[in-house]
Every structure is written in structure tokens, then in C-alpha cells.
């Protein structure tokens, strides 16, 4: 009897030890959520996923990540300061322009006073219809996150109504399908990554529209500056020719020169006056172009243009190559297209091809009320099936032709080659734009610092010698004509330098 009692006590202690921590193990199992089983690309201005303390709704990691990404993109599309800081805009000016950008009358009054390059850049970003349309497209694409999350929420709600019930203890707590989030990367995660790639793609297209509008605006601004300077130079040249004409008339009356000199001066004056008419008409054309980019009426008058500082010296062309490959928005857009197609191919393969594991360690959303040898259903799968009920395939589209998937793979391969082509083309474009900028800067310094003083000296000497009768009239008028050419060339090189530098920044994709 003592032996039997001892054996019973030992068995009881052994069973107690086995059962001692079963409740805590069960609780840990129910509350277990797989680690982050996927990596969503981090876009510019989008923060990494954060934990959500107190969230006991059983939200899958992919859905939580999508919520964070959506908020990040919404903050980026709404935050104007970060984009204007790169332009070097003062905060006071930015605040003032933001306040009057929606008030057309106040903006027209402001534009009628003075035109500054930094200010019209800000106004263009705030008012240009093309930029606003691109922003609307981004906002519309961001809503795709809600579509994916709402689908998962509806599936989760449906699952909550189909959970098994134990009448003795009430509703049992069930978990969502483990196959949706495990193994890597998970269906929800793939859907989130596809949506994120598409949103990032549309965001880069918005940046492309933004920088193209800014480039067109800077080109129009520098053309406007050139026309204004050309008008001033031509007016000064007309005054100089009129003084020369007065001297020629005096010499003709004194019999020291021919009347042909007076006629040639009058012909040159008429040509210059006609140039003034053309410059005035061209100025109006450029004004309309600027007003178009600013979304303002074409019949208003722009104020005095303030010449922007000379662009800084850019780095060496070789140093700009990696910067352009990293920051150029056109390349980023292709990379996001590649990421989107990669996720689509991965999702398609998960619906067609066999899983990486046999699935013995995963449990579906089915409650197991009993365990042991007499249980009607095993807790975990113990075998794999070649087909489902009614001989249906294990995978939804298993055994079907895969033309769409093959087509997507080919498109993906094509995009990778396109990216390589565009990266190589970017290097060439950066080199050409850098060469134009460097050439315009060197020629501007040449004409401004060396040729202009010589042309002015030649003009002064020719004027005195012609009035003294030492040189013939053609030599004197050539000095005046060359002086005009040098002045106009300097104005043109200043405008070309600003335009070429804007084009270089446009290709590189960031402020230099």
C-alpha cells in the first residue's frame, strides 16, 4: 500500500511540474505577434514604423506600418517649409508670400513693385496649376493605404464572426491567420509595399513637375533681365550715336567730311530704334510667360526686376556624378517602379508557387477545444495535401497559365535596363550642363573684366580722333558698334549663366 501511495504521489508531483507554467505559456502564445517580417522602403521625409503602446486590437505589423507611412507622406505633402529652405528663402518672406498667395489683388500689387527670383520661385510653387495638380495626385494616391487597410479590417471582422465558441466558457479568443503575416514577407506587407512604392513614385513625379516649373521660371526671369539690360544698353548706344551724329554734322558743315557719314549714322539710329521696339515686344512676351507660371492674369504689369546674385561656382563635374545618381528624381521614379513590380511579382509567386516551408508550425484561425489522442482535430498540421476539398488546388491559381506574371517579369527586367541607361545618360547630361555653366562663367569674366575696358578705351579714342579728322568715319562707327556688341554680350552671358546653372541643378536634382 505504501508503495502504491508513493507511486501516486510521485506521478502527481510530475504532472504538477508539467502543468505548473501552462497558463502563462498559453497566454504568451495567444499574445504572440511575429517580429517585423518585412522591410518597407523608407521614403524621403517618412519615418520608420513606431510601436503603438496600448493597442490590443490585434493589428498586423504590416497594417500598423502602413498607418505610419500614410501619416508620414501626409506630413511631407503638407509641409512647405522644408522645400523652401533648400531655396534659401527667408522665413519672413515665406510667411508674407504664403499669406498673400491666395489673395490675387494683393499679389498683383506685390508683383507690380519689384520682381525677385527667390520670391517668384515661392509664388510659383504655391500657385502654379501643374504643381497643384501633381500634389492632388499624390494626395489621391495616399488614399490607397486606406484601401489596403480597410480590406484587411473587413477580413478581420469577418473572421471575428466565424470563430469557434465553447458554450461552457463563452467566446474563445482567436488569432488572425498566421499565413497573412508569416512567413516572410506576408501578404499584408506586400500589399503595403506595393502601395508605398506607387505613392513614392507619384511623389517623385510631383518633384519632377516642381523642378521643371522652377527651371522654366528661372529661364524666363533671366531672359527678362537680359531684355531689360539690352533695352538700357541700346538706349545708351542711341545717345552715343546721336552725339557722334552731331559731330559728323558739324564736320560736314565745315567741309571736313562727306554727307555720307551723316546718312550712315542716321541709318544706324533707325536700326537701333527698331531694335528697341522689338525688345519692348519681347519683354511683354516674357512677362506673359512669367505670369502664366505664376497663375496670374496676363494683362497686369510687372515691376522692376532686381538682378539676382551671380550663381556660385559648382563643384567639379566628377563630384556631381554620384550626387545626380542619388538625387535625380527621374532615377528615383524608375527605382520605385522597379520596387513596385518586384513586390507584385513576389505576391503573384506567393499565390502560385509552393511555400518555403511545409507549414507544420503555423496554425490557422481555428479554435481547438480539445487535445490529445481523442481530439477530433490536431492542434497543428501533421501532413500536407496535394489538393483541397473537391480536388481544388492548394493555391488559388495553381496550375493556370502565367502570362501576366511572365509579362511583369519582362517589364521588370526592362525597367532595370532602363535605369542603367538613364544613369549613364545622367552622367553625360551633368557633364554637358556643367560645361555650359563653366563656359558661360569664363566668357562672362573675359568680356566683363578684360574686353569691355579695352572696347571703352577704343571708343573714346575713336571719338576724339574722328572729331579731329585723324581717322575715317568707318573706323569710328566700328568702334561704336563693337562697344554695343560687347555690352550686349555681357548681358547675354549673365543670362546664359543663370539659365545653364538652373539646368545643372535641374539635372542633379538638388540645390547646389
Q: What can you tell me about this protein's structure?
A:
With 512 residues, the protein is mainly α. It contains 15 helices and four strands. The strands form two sheets. A two-stranded parallel sheet has the order 1-4. A two-stranded antiparallel ribbon has the order 2-3. The radius of gyration is 38 Å and the shape is elongated. The N and C termini lie far apart (95 Å). The model is unreliable at 34-59, 164-175 and 180-185 (pLDDT under 50).
H/E element sequence = HHHHHHEHHHEEHHEHHHH
Largest sheet: 2 strands, parallel
Uncertain runs are 34-59, 164-175, 180-185
Kindly provide the radius of gyration, computed on alpha-carbon positions and rounded to a whole number of angstroms.
38 Å
Mean pLDDT: 75
Amino acid at each position: 500500500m505504501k508503495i502504491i501511495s508513493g507511486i501516486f504521489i510521485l506521478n502527481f508531483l510530475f504532472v504538477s511540474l508539467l502543468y505548473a507554467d501552462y497558463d502563462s505559456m498559453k497566454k504568451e502564445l495567444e499574445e504572440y505577434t511575429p517580429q517585423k517580417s518585412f522591410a518597407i522602403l523608407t521614403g524621403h521625409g517618412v519615418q520608420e514604423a513606431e510601436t503603438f503602446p496600448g493597442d490590443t486590437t490585434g493589428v498586423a505589423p504590416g497594417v500598423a506600418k502602413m498607418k505610419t507611412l500614410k501619416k508620414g507622406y501626409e506630413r511631407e505633402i503638407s509641409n512647405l517649409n522644408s522645400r523652401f529652405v533648400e531655396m534659401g528663402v527667408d522665413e519672413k518672406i515665406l510667411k508674407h508670400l504664403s499669406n498673400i498667395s491666395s489673395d490675387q489683388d494683393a499679389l498683383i500689387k506685390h508683383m507690380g513693385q519689384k520682381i525677385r527670383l527667390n520670391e517668384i520661385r515661392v509664388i510659383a510653387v504655391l500657385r502654379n496649376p501643374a504643381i497643384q495638380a501633381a500634389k492632388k495626385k499624390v494626395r489621391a494616391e495616399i488614399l490607397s493605404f486606406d484601401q489596403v487597410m480597410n480590406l484587411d479590417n473587413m477580413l478581420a471582422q469577418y473572421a471575428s464572426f466565424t470563430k469557434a465558441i465553447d458554450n461552457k466558457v463563452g467566446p474563445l479568443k482567436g488569432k488572425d491567420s498566421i499565413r497573412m503575416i508569416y512567413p516572410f514577407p506576408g501578404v499584408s506587407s506586400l500589399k503595403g509595399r506595393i502601395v508605398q512604392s506607387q505613392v513614392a513614385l507619384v511623389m517623385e513625379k510631383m518633384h519632377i513637375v516642381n523642378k521643371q516649373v522652377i527651371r522654366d521660371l528661372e529661364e524666363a526671369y533671366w531672359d527678362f533681365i537680359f531684355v531689360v539690360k539690352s533695352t538700357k544698353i541700346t538706349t545708351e548706344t542711341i545717345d552715343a550715336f546721336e552725339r557722334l551724329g552731331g559731330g559728323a554734322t558739324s564736320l560736314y558743315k565745315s567741309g571736313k567730311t562727306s554727307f555720307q557719314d551723316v546718312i550712315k549714322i542716321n541709318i544706324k539710329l533707325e536700326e537701333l530704334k527698331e531694335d528697341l521696339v522689338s525688345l519692348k515686344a519681347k519683354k511683354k512676351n516674357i512677362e506673359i510667360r512669367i505670369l502664366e507660371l505664376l497663375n496670374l492674369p496676363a494683362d497686369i504689369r510687372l515691376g522692376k526686376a532686381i538682378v539676382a546674385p551671380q550663381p556660385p561656382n559648382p563643384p567639379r563635374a566628377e563630384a556631381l556624378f554620384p550626387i545626380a545618381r542619388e538625387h535625380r528624381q527621374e532615377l528615383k521614379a524608375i527605382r520605385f517602379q522597379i520596387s513596385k513590380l518586384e513586390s507584385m511579382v513576389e505576391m503573384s509567386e506567393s499565390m502560385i508557387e509552393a511555400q518555403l516551408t511545409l507549414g507544420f508550425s503555423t496554425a490557422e484561425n481555428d479554435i481547438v477545444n480539445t487535445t490529445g489522442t481523442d481530439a477530433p482535430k490536431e492542434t497543428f498540421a501533421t501532413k500536407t495535401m496535394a489538393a483541397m476539398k473537391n480536388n481544388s488546388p492548394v493555391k488559388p491559381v495553381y496550375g493556370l497559365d502565367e502570362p501576366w506574371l511572365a509579362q511583369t517579369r519582362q517589364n521588370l527586367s526592362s525597367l532595370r535596363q532602363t535605369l542603367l541607361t538613364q544613369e549613364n545618360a545622367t552622367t553625360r547630361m551633368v557633364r554637358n550642363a556643367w560645361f555650359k555653366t563653366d563656359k558661360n562663367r569664363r566668357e562672362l569674366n573675359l568680356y566683363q573684366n578684360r574686353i569691355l575696358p579695352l572696347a571703352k578705351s577704343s571708343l573714346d579714342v575713336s571719338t576724339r580722333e574722328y572729331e579731329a579728322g585723324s581717322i575715317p568715319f568707318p573706323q569710328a562707327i566700328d568702334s561704336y558698334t563693337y562697344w554695343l556688341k560687347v555690352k550686349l554680350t555681357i548681358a547675354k552671358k549673365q543670362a546664359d549663366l543663370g539659365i545653364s546653372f538652373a539646368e545643372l541643378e535641374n539635372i542633379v536634382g538638388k540645390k547646389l
